[in-house]
Design a protein that fits this description.
It is built from two helices and four strands; from the N terminus they run ααββββ. Helix 1 packs across helix 2. It is rod-shaped.
Length: 139
């Protein structure tokens, strides 16, 4: 009878040790996977933050450019298109007398913010395009 109790207690101790080892291995594996995922999330968050910061910096530059363009248009109420050309803007004037002006503002190495506006004879400015694109605007 003592032999039987000894073998049962050895199996009980061996089984509990095996379960403990398996639990420790599983917990270690899951913690390593969680750490890897956290690092990947951090890298992605940093990329998104840099991209967003670059976009809003370009957007701010575009707003300043638009304000300067508006000031030039207001200073030349008789012929806004001629005023834009005289101020150094590369304006394409249509037959209707609308001047179309565009500018590209860099966001990062791969993207630019392209802004295109049209100015009519009355000095009204219409934004035709305000778009982030992956290639520089054609000149």
């Amino acid at each position: 009878m003592s032999r039987r109790n000894a073998s049962r207690s050895a199996i009980g101790v061996g089984l509990s040790t095996l379960v403990t080892v398996m639990v420790a291995v599983l917990l270690t594996t899951f913690s390593v996977l969680a750490l890897a995922q956290a690092r990947a999330d951090l890298r992605l968050s940093e990329k998104v933050a840099a991209s967003t910061q670059g976009y809003y910096a370009a957007d701010g530059q575009a707003e300043h450019w638009l304000a300067r363009l508006d000031a030039v248009v207001q200073d030349a109420p008789d012929d806004p298109a001629a005023g834009l050309v005289a101020a150094g803007y590369d304006a394409a004037v249509s037959q209707e007398g609308r001047a179309v002006v565009s500018e590209a503002f860099p966001i990062d190495e791969r993207r630019v913010l392209v802004v295109e506006v049209a100015v009519d004879r009355a000095g009204r400015i219409d934004i035709l395009r305000w778009q982030s694109t992956s290639s520089p605007a054609p000149e």
